Amino acid sequence: MNTQILREIGLTEGEIKVYLALLKLGSTTSGPLTDNSGVSRSKIYNVLERLIKKGLVSFIIKEKTRYYQAEDPVRIQQYLDTKEKEFKKQKSEIDSLMPFLLKQKNSAQVLSEAQIYKGFKGVQAIVERIYMGLKKGESYCSLGIPVFQEDKYHDYWKKDHLRRMKAGISCNLLFNQGASREILKNRNSYKGADARYMPIQVDTPAWILVYKNVTAIILQGEDALSIEITNKEIAHSFQQYFDAFWKLSKKFK
Fold first, then answer.
1. What is the per-residue pLDDT across 72-102, written as a single tens digit (0 to 9) for each?
2. How many Å apart are CA 59 and CA 65, to the nearest integer?
3. CATH of domain 111-248
4. What does pTM read for this prediction?
């Protein structure tokens, strides 16, 4: 008999053995139950008490001796129903508590931290955190987006801009001179995106992304490396660099 499902609903190995033994024996005392279940005498009473609390075992007293018996197996379904109700109640309580917990976490968050990500998935992780940090009506900016990007990056950005639009987030993008006009044309085709060329000639493989108090420096390619810095002053500094270049840039035509 496969008893894995009984473990998954919260019964211990000892509880399963005792319950199955009681189904087989019927009303019995602890002695025969110990022999048939394989649960030691030192543990049998604790196991029985837990099963009684779960509504799966009951007992009667005859001549000062307890006789235990398994409740109808349908009680297992009732036990599951009870657990489900408890789970829903706990989930509701956690949901109501979540705003307070998040507020506490944010208020205690360190003023400065840095994280390093590697590979293409690391770049995706950086972008994913944008949606954790920004809400509808807010924006981010990117500075020095490189001339060459692998196709997988372009495919990813196209999908991400659809997500960005849906989230109601806007972005201002400055590409290095030499980047394909088709790329800028594509980025500008998405609502809320303003893609332009850098006003000066630079050739950098890394680009900078800034929003709120976060600055990300991203080096794309085969050995992609991304550094995310959470620091208000650093983010403000890079935002000023971006703003200065943005004022000198021209609307893409």
1. 888 888 888 888 888 888 888 888 888 877 7
2. 10
3. 3.30.870.10
4. 0.56
